[in-house]
Amino acid sequence: MTGFHSKEERMEFRGAITALVTPFRSGEVDEEAFRALIEWQIEQGIHGLVPCGTTGESATLSHEEHKRVIRICVDQVKGRVPVLAGAGSNNTREAIELTQDAKDAKADGALLITPYYNKPTQAGLVAHFKAIADRVDLPFIVYNVPGRTAVNLLPETLAILKKEIRQVIGVKEATGDLTQVSRVLEFCGEDFQVLSGDDFTALPTMAIGGCGVISVVSNFVPQKMSAMCEAVFAGDLKTAKALHYDMSPLYRAAFIETNPVPAKTALALMGRFPFETRLPMVPLLPDNKAKLEAVLQKAGLI
């Protein structure tokens, strides 16, 4: 499944893809809990997995931990679903290193965030992704999340990336702006894999031509998110809408405070593993935890 050499061999990332949390125990990566979470995700019908994304607290993982988490994921998955490894950085040299390591780990592709904090121009974004592509032959999904990076990767720029960099096969579009999503699809064509980066825009994105979602909520409701995507692919919009509105309270609860704190809290309340994050992430405020717990109870999850 790894690597690609022609259009016929292009990796497809579609459907419900979970942006996995990274379980910790006493300050260290909890490998046993992580493997159990991955196994449960696959049993529940998830279509793909993302280790070491924002939801996986990649910003607080050391390089060695980052590489280890990806290897654990690939090893546990054993080719059953695609693994899209988080490998981006605002330092192009570091992004090249992490992307090469994702390839060495036999991930099926790399999720590459636009450089954050240093605010490159659109030309700088193109140069960044070209530099990675020049060094690593692995499919890339570009991650556009201006709310975290302070830079919006424009649809016109994505069209340039698609035309000039064969490794760029899609985008995780997390602007929450369906006008922008529509323009990406218009400019980049049907063969470009447009994934929603927000749970609440998953169904609308797929309705206008997107191919799935990289989801936070599917950490704790993988079966429902997968079922919604499958309903869209089957042309059953009635079922897809019902599932979308059924999950909408969970969408809101999952972002009651900064991701991934609510998701990790939900998994802890469900008994998957104890709650633990790394600073600067801290536990939910008591009122917000109570609100999340009430939503989970109503959904029958606890």
From TrEMBL:
PANTHER family linked to this entry: 4-HYDROXY-2-OXOGLUTARATE ALDOLASE, MITOCHONDRIAL, DIHYDRODIPICOLINATE SYNTHASE
Q: Name one GO cellular component term.
A: cytosol
Question: In the UniProt entry, which residues are flagged as the active site?
Answer: Y143, K172
What GO molecular function annotations does the UniProt record carry, in alphabetical order?
A: 4-hydroxy-tetrahydrodipicolinate synthase activity
Q: What is the recorded function of this protein according to its Swiss-Prot or TrEMBL entry?
A: Catalyzes the condensation of (S)-aspartate-beta-semialdehyde [(S)-ASA] and pyruvate to 4-hydroxy-tetrahydrodipicolinate (HTPA).
Keyword Amino-acid biosynthesis on entry: yes
Q: Where is this site: L-lysine inhibitor binding?
A: A59, N90, E94, Y116
Checking SMART domains in the record gives: DHDPS
User: EC annotation?
Assistant: 4.3.3.7
The record ties this protein, via Pfam families, to: DHDPS
Q: Pathway involvement?
A: Amino-acid biosynthesis; L-lysine biosynthesis via DAP pathway; (S)-tetrahydrodipicolinate from L-aspartate: step 3/4
The protein's name: 4-hydroxy-tetrahydrodipicolinate synthase
The broad enzyme category this protein falls into is lyase
Question: What's an example Gene Ontology biological process for this entry?
Answer: diaminopimelate biosynthetic process
Q: Which family does it belong to?
A: Belongs to the DapA family.
Its recorded reaction(s) are:
L-aspartate 4-semialdehyde + pyruvate = (2S,4S)-4-hydroxy-2,3,4,5-tetrahydrodipicolinate + H2O + H(+)
Subcellular location(s): the record lists: Cytoplasm
The alphabetized UniProt keywords are: Amino-acid biosynthesis, Cytoplasm, Diaminopimelate biosynthesis, Lyase, Lysine biosynthesis, Schiff base
According to UniProt, residues marked as the site described as Part of a proton relay during catalysis are T54, Y117
Task: Output the lineage of the source organism.
Answer: Bacteria, Pseudomonadati, Thermodesulfobacteriota, Desulfovibrionia, Desulfovibrionales
Q: Which residues hold pyruvate? A: T55, I214
Membrane-spanning intervals of the chain: none
User: What is the protein's quaternary organization?
Assistant: Homotetramer; dimer of dimers.
